[in-house]
């Protein structure tokens, strides 16, 4: 079985760096005409250079996901240049935080405006195109924080939990048009957004010990999931949230299996 995405047209938001950049490059290498957008021009310039060097097909646009007018311009431009939109990856996000007692109102607003409202505005602009095509895949970045929140993540976790519910609502609305809408919840993927892999060794170990698969997730892990969900193979999946966290919820004490495996190794 082969995942064939060639010739499809995708928009990936927040494609300037991190997971979004990797998703954009992976889709493009799979033959997808890939439009990357980001709020930072210098990151779009870097991505444009990488696309040119690797002779990948697509375009890069400066676009703040909070700006409905700019989104409308970009969607119109993508339609006129490439004719359709098959895949929308709402990856752009921020993760600033603070305890409820100390959280600044502007931090709360930034999380809600970028993570949640940005996803809504992008969908609102792209849905008419996908409805007219009677096909499409919308993939929204939620987070493991939407399942179990971390300390001090009120703004972020609330916005991502809302992305999950928004995803289900939209999936319900778009069923008759064969447009599927799903979200995914990455666990711990080292990127510039976080400092997972830069923390003192002991703290890294404590975090990794919460995982059934005791390793950080990678941008490749997320991009592979996106490729599958965006493909024809995933045509019967909609309204779901895929947990891609290395098994943070699989078992109560992941360390027990590692102790048993160590004993096994000593005995063999
Ligand atoms: N890295 C993780 O462990 C992890 C875990 C769970 C969920 N996620 C989610 O995955 C997504 C990507 O995370 P990442 O780690 O690559 O983050 P990142 O900070 O490295 O990248 C985010 C990108 O979004 C862009 N962006 C920010 N605000 C924007 C706006 N208003 N409009 C357009 N673009 C904007 C940034 O410029 C940046 O290029 C986010 O939605 C994040 O919440 C990440």
UniProtKB/TrEMBL annotation:
InterPro entries: KR_dom (IPR057326), NAD(P)-bd_dom_sf (IPR036291), Sc_DH/Rdtase_CS (IPR020904), SDR_fam (IPR002347). Pfam families: adh_short_C2. One of its GO terms (molecular function) is oxidoreductase activity, acting on the CH-OH group of donors, NAD or NADP as acceptor. Belongs to the short-chain dehydrogenases/reductases (SDR) family. GO terms for biological process: bile acid metabolic process. PANTHER family: SHORT-CHAIN DEHYDROGENASES/REDUCTASES FAMILY MEMBER. Keywords: Oxidoreductase. This is SDR family NAD(P)-dependent oxidoreductase. Residues 8-187 form the Ketoreductase domain. The keyword Manganese does not apply.
